[in-house]
Amino acid sequence: MVVLVSISLMTITVDYRQGENGPLAAVGRGALGLISPLQEAVSRVTRPVGDFFSGLADLPSLREENERLLAELEAAQTQAAASVSLQARYQQVREVLKLQEELKPESVAAIVIANGISNSEWVVTIDKGSDDGVEQGMAVVTPGYALVGHVVRASTGSADVQLIIDLDSAVTARLTSSRKTGQLIGRGNADLQMSLLDPETEIDLSESPTEMVETASYKVAGFEGLYPPGILIGTVSRVLESPAELEQFVTVRPAVDFSSLEFVVVLRTQPEG
Q: Are residues 113 and 46 in the same domain?
């Protein structure tokens, strides 16, 4: 050991005195040139293993970061959807107020607060009643002035509205192009059916826009129709064949989406009689 230590000290001393130009320095540089490729090869093999174990160490923090980003994304998506919904509601409210202003004071804006649709009765409840001037028999429309139905019961703070798709609903209607009139019967989820049409009435469903249907007024023996004239009901969806050829039948697709009905306007006009 003493000999080895002595040789080491002597080698260090000689290398120090000779500097970078000495024979020992040249030998060191040569050894380094031989070892460097081996170090690089070993590094290539061991680096992925090291990165793998390093990734394992960072995995919990990466998982937390991923969960945080997902939560932020879901919050942003929820906020965007809520913004779209609020924008749609805002537009509906504007349309209600605009229509009410045009019809004032002959109208009352209301919100649908209950849905009583069943297999036998298609009725909704609104938040305005007799205290607001709403009475039985008054017509109800959407902010876009499409027919919803009419008031069948009114209490002090609310009222029930029978929809035109109710099985007991009947509306005197008119084709806007030919001006031919008939009677619309509600059929629940199915399109309305219009009967009592003149069999000579020509209806071309290939045209665009298709044949539109609106309310028609009538007055018989002192009794006036239930709905004011000119309210949009829907469009003709199909012409049915009539074996008797005494009248023509068509189906009418309502202009109102009753599944998402939210805002309505009650027309404060009643039929006479």
A: no
CATH number at residue 235: 2.40.10.340
Query: Within this chain, do residues 227 and 125 fall inside the same structural domain, yes or no?
Result: yes
Residues 6 or more apart whose Cβ sits within 8 Å of residue 181:
172, 173, 174, 175, 196, 197, 216, 218
* Packing angle, helices 23-103 and 2-18, rounded to 10: 80
Asked if residue 243 and residue 121 are part of one domain, the reply reads: yes
Give the range of the structural domain holding residue 9, as residue numbers without chain letter.
2-55
Would the CA dihedral through 225, 226, 230, 235 be positive or negative? negative
Tokens of 241: 């064949």
**What letter does residue 210 receive in the DSSP assignment?**
P
Give pLDDT tens digits for 253-264.
999 999 889 999
Query: pTM for the full model?
Result: 0.64
Q: Could you give the CA distance from residue 237 to residue 235 in angstroms, rounded to a whole number?
A: 6
Q: Name residue 163's amino acid.
A: L
Statement: residue 105 has pLDDT above 80: no
